[in-house]
Amino acid sequence: MGDYVPLEYDFGDAPDPTYPTWNASGGAFHTIVPGFFLGNSVDPELDGQPHPQALGDDNDGNDDEDGVTFTSTIRPGWHATVDVTASAPGHLDLWIDFDGDGGWAEAHDHVFAAMPLNPGVNSLTFNIPTTGNPEIQTFARFRFSSAGGLPYTGGAPDGEIEDYLVDIEADPTAAGEGTPQRFNLYQNNPNPFNPMTTIRFDLPTEQPVRLTIYTVDGRRILTLVNEPRPAGRHEAIWNGRDAQGQPVASGSYFYNSTSFDGSDALPVKGQGTGPKGRLSFQPAPVVCSHICIRRGQQGNAFNFIRI
User: What residue segments make up the domains of the chain, in order of their start?
Assistant: First the structure.
C-alpha cells in the first residue's frame, strides 16, 4: 500500500463574527488538490483565519490570495468588472455584502453562481444592486471549484476560497435631490470594460439628445441615443460594437453627447490599459478645438476613450 497522504484545506479570512469563517461557525473550506486553485498557488490552514481587513491568509507567511483583481469601482446601480485568474477550468461562486449588514444571505449578495472559468485571466462583468449601501467598506467571498454551485459556507472537494475587503463608492450622478441643474456627461463605467460599459448623462429639461461614438478622425461608429429624453438622469450602454453589430478594432475613440441647454460637459482623456474592450480615463482640462464646438444654443460634450 502507498503512503497515506493527509488531506489539507484552504479556509477564508473574512472577519468572524459576523461572517462565517471559523470552522465552528460553518466557515467555508476547500480540500487542496494539486494544480487546482486561483492565482498562482494555494496554501493549507488548520482553520479559518478571520481578520478585520480579510488579510489573515495574506499574513500567514504565504500570500496565496492573488487570484482576484477588481478592475473598476463598485457603485450602486452601476456595472463593475473583476479579473479572476484560474489555474484550470472550473466554476466560480461569488458573494458581496452590498449593504454591509455583516452577511451574504440576501439574494442580491449572490453575484455569480457556478460561473464557468477558463484557465488564465477571466474578465467578468456584474451589476451592482441599487439597494447597495454607498461609501462603506464590506466583504466579498470568491469560491472556485470544479463543480460550482456552492453556498458561502461549508466544504468543497477541491479549489480555493478567497475573501476580500471591498469599497462601495457613492454614485456621483446621484448626489443631491431633484432635477439636474445643467447638462452633464459622465465618465463611462465600468472602466476598463468587457464586454459593455454604461455612459450616463444629466438633462435639466426635456430635450432632444444625441449620443454618438466616433473614431479619432471623426468617422461615426454608432449612435447610441437619438431621441427626446425627459429631464433627469439617463444612461446608455455600449457593447464595443459598431452600427452593423461588429466588434470595433482596438484603438482610440470619442463619445459625444449633444443637448440643447448651451453647456459643455467635462471632457475626459483616455489612457489605454490593455486588450480590446478595455479603457481607462483620467480627468483633463477642457480643450476646445475644431471637434469641440458650440453653435447657438447647442451644447456639445466630447469624451475621449481608448479600447
Answer: 9-168, 178-306
Q: What is the DSSP letter of 173?
A: G
Domains 9-168 and 178-306 share a fold: yes
Grid cell of 19 as nine digits: 461572517
Contacts of residues 183-187 at CB distance under 8 Å and 24 or more positions apart, as own/partner, are 183/257, 183/259, 183/261, 183/263, 183/265, 183/299, 183/301, 184/265, 184/266, 184/301, 185/255, 185/257, 185/265, 185/266, 185/301, 185/303, 186/265, 187/268, 187/281, 187/303
CA pair distance 74, 79, nearest whole angstrom: 8
Chain segment 39-83, per-residue pLDDT in tens: 999 999 999 999 999 998 777 666 678 899 887 778 888 778 888
Of 260, 264, 251, which is closest to residue 291 (Cα–Cα)?
A: 264
pLDDT tens for each residue of 77-122: 877 888 899 999 999 999 999 999 999 999 999 999 999 999 999 9
Q: Write down the CATH number for the domain with range 9-168.
A: 2.60.40.2950
Q: Point out which residues pair with 198 in neighbouring strands.
A: 189, 237
The DSSP code for 118 is -
Task: Enumerate residues 6+ apart whose C-beta is below 8 A from 109.
Answer: 95, 96, 97, 98, 103
d(CA 40, CA 65): 9
Give the residue among 199, 130, 203, 156 at the shortest CA–CA distance from 36: 156
Q: Which CATH topology does 178-306 take? A: Immunoglobulin-like (2.60.40)
pLDDT tens for 253-303 read 778 777 655 433 333 223 222 222 222 222 222 222 122 222 223 334 444
Under a CB-based contact definition with an 8 Å cutoff, are residues 89 and 119 in contact?
yes
Q: Where do we find the cell 485568474?
A: 85
Alpha-carbon gap, residue 147 to 91, rounded angstroms: 6
Query: Where would I find the H helices in the chain?
Result: none
Residue type at 124?
A: L
Strand order in the sheet with 232-238: 184-185, 197-203, 232-238
